[in-house]
Write a structure and sequence with these properties.
CATH superfamily of the largest domain: Periplasmic binding protein-like II
Shape: globular
CATH topology of the largest domain: D-Maltodextrin-Binding Protein, domain 2
Protein name: Putative spermidine/putrescine transport system substrate-binding protein
Keywords: Periplasm, Signal
Largest sheet: 13 strands, mixed
Number of strands: 18
CATH architecture of the largest domain: 3-Layer(aba) Sandwich
Number of domains: 2
Organism: Rhizobium aethiopicum
CATH class of the largest domain: Alpha Beta
InterPro entries: SBP, TAT_signal
Helix content: 25-40%
Strand content: 15-25%
Amino acid sequence: MTTETTSTKAEKGLSRRTLLKTGAAAVGAIAGSGAITGFPTIWAKTNITLRQFGTGVSNINAIAEKCKADLGITLEMTATDSDAAAQRAVTQPDSYDIADIEYWIAKKVFPTGALQPMDVKKLKYYDKIVPLFIDGKMKPDSVIAQGTAPHTVGFVEAQGSKKFAKEPTQWMTMVPTIYNADTLGIRPDLVGRDISSWADIMDPKFKGKTSILNIPSIGIMDAAMIMEAMGNLKYADKGNMTKEEIDKTIEFLIKAKGDGQFRAFWKSFDESVNLMASGEVVIQSMWSPAVAAVRSKGIACKYQPLKEGYRAWGGGLGLASHLKGAELDAAYEYINWYTSGWVGGYLNRQGYYSACMETAKGFMTADEWGYWIEGKPAQGDILSPEGKVMEKAGAVRDGGSFEARMGAVACWNSVMDEDRYMVRRWNEFIAA
């Protein structure tokens, strides 16, 4: 997904400028005030298009089509990889209306002023957002994981502020939508033994058959999980390494690369699927739906829970600073629709998690909810959102329930104080 693909074309209609000069602004103002609801017909008449970009995991045609049907708002979507998304968010703020980005990216983007804070009073399902994104905890007694935990960059101090708040405020940086607990994917038919630790990816037995992902902010966290699991290094905070810790980590990776441990370094979902499905790689950093994609080809692939825990990530929708008037009202309406349940059910059925679990539950069968969220054995076939059989009756989700998986997060994808130094060193490793 390194190349940009615009998947949903804007429909011909009024230009933005004309739109704002016409009665659409008035319509939007009434709509945004909450005075009327259920008004796809009104949005349809305004010909509003919202330009959204972000990573391929959630920029999905089906969501754009459903949004058009339900709201009458046209979504123009562009999918990129994480690094390209971070760059575009900052350097081309007028090229999008909605940024669908990860929280570690938000940490880089929000202080630049490219996004505007969101008023939680306009967020219809704010009280349904899982606490993980509000105070960082799954349960009141949970330990907050290392790294850029979403709640630490989830709020700003005031409406005009670019400074992240220490506590929840009325002003949210992004509305959380999607997240997951990541681990290693394995080919159980080819590894030939039990896999229980992040350290297993460095077993000489798997020489030339392993892969980690080449997105510096994420790859370095996988490397840190591996380093700690091997007993090579105990980090004060994996999510905010010192230069010395970065150097030791990169030197370890360069040596492993020189020894031929890695087959490849992937950047996109498709690359990871192809490496695994072909059997070129038997153990690698992976995303849950990529494991599902391999399995849907009839090839054994497992998302292996590991004793040291998971590396987590979370994403959300942010509003471009330039949005105002009818377009800003439409963007809020879109976000309220997004969190109302249909999209959440769709994401849950892909193996991700919805940030508004309660609303998503209404769009899943009891069996789907049992399998994906509660860790129960499937009663019947488990289908993908596209209707393909993903799991047969009796299957149990790798890693178990939502609470078991998200409750065992060791670190979040992160932006360090020494981020520029880390990226430079990471690129040296890739070039080595």
